[in-house]
Design a protein that fits this description.
The protein has 14 helices and 8 strands. With about 425 residues, it is mostly helical. A two-stranded antiparallel ribbon has the order 1-2.
Length: about 425
């Protein structure tokens, strides 16, 4: 597979931005909004798949290209997110008000838009009012529950709300042979282990909030949760690969092992990077190295069999692995070669025409298997754009920091000389 230069990645991202802007819906008062796909009817304001995630990609583009066209679109996108705050039911980071508040707060912080800042505060007020003392919904994890709300609150500077969100984990632990775990969805017998819906997502929130609040008990619990997961490693002393869930959740549809951010070592390594820096313990760095070893030898981004690697996006696919590769490039100096492979694969799988650039994921059980291109962070252009632009900078010795840090992505820093 040929490699792709950072400048090529920048060109690819610019085309993806063209398609994204062309997919926007004009709504009231010159606001812009996005749906999950261009043919969807329902507007989606969320961080995961809708306008909030697109807004953060536009802020990234504005900073990278120094082009106010993207900033104007971000402000107009924030208007539609603000209009959805009062009627939105979910409080979560990725699917609800916490994530919408993160995006609105970012527009305020980056562009000085006062209306977005006020809307962010309204969203946070609604989140606070919905807490029942233990949780916000039946979900109790990072994507849709307490852990994600804690990280969003921390990003907004509200340590008190972040503490409220993680404190229930102290009293809801379940012992395991290696440490502890949590029931991350009420009434579900399976216990999930990874970042998006499982124990390591809770660990990330406990460690981050514990550090910010000076709470050693939260950090100790984070370690116990991480050890509960590491005890399940099936890859031996050099690698790291833990099952999706135990007992296996929907084994007829969900593979036992995954490799992306959501349920695999590409995401696990992000948590271990955080623990490394919180604790100053090289054992966590070695675990991150083991995750990298497994990811780079898994065969991805090649589609080795139907269903193995069918996603280009940030949540479950190639862009999420690219985020880790760029972290490695910054911190360890060894991620560039694999990052080049990942970007080359994204380039080869892109649809490029007069409308711009976009990606179709696959569902191998369907005929035809190609899915409609998506706009948002998780599976679509917004998430891919952020990683392509970061690669374009990091790969040429530029600033690897994002314009707006993602709440659950521990920042990468070069080692001090």
């Amino acid at each position: 597979m040929s490699t792709t230069r950072p400048g090529d990645a920048e060109t690819l991202a610019a085309g993806a931005l063209d398609w994204l802007l062309g997919s926007a819906r004009s709504v009231a008062d010159r606001a812009l909004a996005w749906t999950g796909t261009p043919t969807d009817d329902e507007l989606d304001p969320t961080l995961y798949s809708g306008t909030s995630g697109v807004v953060l990609a536009l802020l990234e583009a504005r900073r990278h290209f120094r082009d106010d066209r993207y900033g104007d679109a971000a402000v107009r996108g924030a208007r539609s997110v603000a209009a959805a705050v009062e009627g939105w039911d979910s409080s979560s980071l990725y699917l609800g008000l916490a994530g919408m508040a993160v995006a609105l707060g970012a527009v305020h912080g980056e562009l000085g838009d006062v209306a977005s800042g006020a809307a962010a505060e309204r969203a946070w007020d609604r989140v606070r009012s919905r807490f029942d003392g233990t949780r916000w919904s039946e979900q109790f994890e990072l994507l849709s529950g307490n852990a994600g709300i804690a990280l969003g609150a921390l990003a907004a500077g509200d340590v008190e709300l972040a503490l409220q969100a993680v404190t229930p984990y102290l009293r809801t632990t379940e012992p395991t042979p290696g440490g502890v775990q949590w029931e991350t969805r009420a009434g579900r017998s399976a216990r999930l282990h990874h970042v998006s819906h499982g124990t390591l997502g809770v660990v990330h929130a406990l460690a981050a909030v514990g550090r910010a609040a000076g709470r050693a008990d939260l950090i100790e619990l984070a370690v116990a949760g991480a050890l509960g997961v590491t005890a399940r490693n099936d890859a031996g002393p050099t690698g790291f690969l833990v099952p999706h869930s135990d007992p296996a959740l929907r084994p007829d549809r969900i593979e036992r092992y995954s490799y992306g951010w959501c349920h695999g070592p590409a995401g696990d390594a992000q948590v271990f990077r955080l623990l490394r820096d919180v604790l100053g313990d090289s054992a966590w760095s070695r675990l991150a190295d083991q995750c990298w070893y497994t990811v780079t030898r898994s065969g991805l981004p090649r589609r080795l069999r139907p269903g193995f690697w069918d996603n280009n996006g940030r949540c479950c696919g190639t862009a999420g692995v690219l985020a880790l590769a760029c972290d490695r490039l910054v911190e360890q100096g060894d991620g560039l070669d694999f990052a080049n492979v990942l970007v080359s694969d994204l380039a080869s799988r892109a649809t490029v025409d007069a409308d711009g650039v976009r990606w179709s994921n696959l569902e191998h059980r369907n005929t035809p298997s190609a899915l409609e291109p998506r706009t948002g962070w998780a599976m679509g252009n917004a998430g891919i754009i952020r990683e392509l632009l970061r690669f374009a900078r990091a790969g040429t010795g530029g600033d690897p920091a994002y314009a707006v840090a993602w709440p659950d992505h521990h920042p990468a820093e070069a080692p001090r000389r």
